[in-house]
Each structure stands twice: as structure tokens, then as C-alpha cells.
Amino acid sequence: NDEQPPAWFGRLPPGAVDGHCKDALEDCSALGAQLFDLSGRCRYPAAELCLKTCGHCWRMAAARKCSTPAGSCHPFCDAQVDWAQFLEAAVRRAQPEIPEAKLISRSPAMAEFPGFLSPAEADALVDLGLRTGFVPEDDLPPAVRDVDKIDCEAAVCLMDPFVQEVVGRMSTILGIPPQNFESFEFLRYRKGQHYSAHMDTADYRELEGGEIHAGPRVLTAFFYFTEVDDGGETYFPARNITIKPEKGKVVVWSNVKSKFWRLNEDALHQAIPVVSGTKVAANFWIHPFDFRAGEHFARACS
Ligand SMILES: O=C(O)CCC(=O)C(=O)O
Ligand SMILES: [Fe+2]
Q1: For residue 169, which of 81, 88, 223, 286 sits 20 to 30 Å off, Cα-Cα?
Q2: What is the residue range of 185's domain?
Q3: Are residues 131 and 249 in the same domain?
């Protein structure tokens, strides 16, 4: 699974030792060969798995050493974005299909898209979450985050044609290429489950102008797949904004300032405990640059 890096090779990905990377994903070595085409580009949608290196450690390291290849910063090349304007444009693009789409806050910039999914489509994604298999949160203690969750990384989810259709819809509305997206993180909260106030990304100002990097989670698109009988709202305490779960609704907000390596603290948010019913929802995080570093290959900077 490991490859010897070439002589010119520089910085290694996280977790690499002596030029060797250990793959975190169990079926990765089986998938590795399918992940890159002959010219060295990651294939989409399998490309999401490239983050795990799949035996292509030195190629990914090379990619991180490159300056951003021309065009791959689209649409964020100038590193300054007026997020409210950005989401207003998204609302305009969405409106023919989603007439109730609207901007609901300027800081954090936030737009809602009620009926982004039809009820049947929302049900289909709940089913897919269940089939992928929710597991209890284990990164954070239950007092902070108590939720069952699953990343849409298994083939059954990642390769699902409807998932790709939704990714495409989001890409069209936002005007952001799908390579900049993380896969869905499905969430299920039952009675009492919650997530206390947090930011979805860190402040990365030290990386400004630095090595190639996907950059922060500039936008969060949050999907609601169910209504909740009582509780389960998403609450933004700095701005006293409450979003009530509605089946099929998507809310998109910006986590960062106009210079997008900086956090916008107004985007602090929490999941209020579910009092009764079940909340099924999903995070869908969006980066300013290609999230799949493996896509830019050694040759891109030689
Ligand atoms: O469940 C919610 O309403 C928000 C969840 C959230 O913010 C997160 O998982 O990062
Ligand atoms: Fe969050």
C-alpha cells in the first residue's frame, strides 16, 4: 500500500512517517487503483476517498506542496468574499425552482431554501443514512455533543446516484464546484440529544497565502430531513436566530469573514435538545478550494 516518494518530494501529509502513509480507511487498498485515472486525476465521486491517500501518499504530498493550480480556486480566487451578496446570488439562482428561498441574515450571512428536497427525497436520504449505519458520536463527550452520525463515505452512500444528484443541485445553486464539498455527515438526534454551541471551523489565518490546502469550512449547508415534534432547533446565540427543522429545508450560512481565513463569531451555533420526536439532518461543509488534495498531482507542480 505504500510507495517510495521521488527525490524532489517535500512535505508529507499528516500521519506520514519516513515517506510512508498509513491509510485510515479499511477498504482503501482495494479502492486505491480505481481512485486515479491514467493521467493522475482523482475520479469523481470516488475522489472523496483520495483524502485517505489509498497508497498515493507521495502524490498527495506533492499536491500539497504546489501553489494552487490555475483555475482550482474558482470561485474564490481573490480570498475576499461578501458572503451576503454571495448567498443573495445563490437565492436568485434557486428561485425558479425554490420560490421561497431567501436571505435571512447578513451576519452570519445565511439563506434558507425551504423545499430544497421534496418530502420523498428527504425520506430517501433518511433511508440512506440508516442503511449506511448511524453510530454514536465518539469524538466529543456527550455533555458537548450527543448524536448518532455517519459520514457518507461508504460506497453505498458515496456512489448513490441520488446523493450525486443532490451534490450537483447544490453545486449549481451555489456556483461552487463539487470538489470543494465534503461528503454528507448524517445526524440523528433522539429525545435529549443535542450539540452545544460551537463553530464549524477553526481560524486559519496563519495559513493565509500558505501551502495548498482546502481552506476553512467557509460555508455550512445544513439539511433537515424530518420535522421534530418539540425541540431540535438550530440556534445562533450571538444573533438570537432560531431555525426550526422543516422536512426538506436547507439552510446555508457562512462561518467566516470576508477574508475567509478568519472566523465570523456570529456563526456560533448549537443544536437545541430534542424534546420529542426524532431529528434527522445532515451537515454539508464547503471549502474555498479543492477538498480532495489528491486531485492535484505531482505533475501539476513539476
Ligand atoms: O443539528 C443541528 O441543528 C446543528 C448541528 C451542527 O451544528 C453540527 O453538527 O455541526
Ligand atoms: Fe455545527
Answers
A1: 81
A2: 83-286
A3: yes
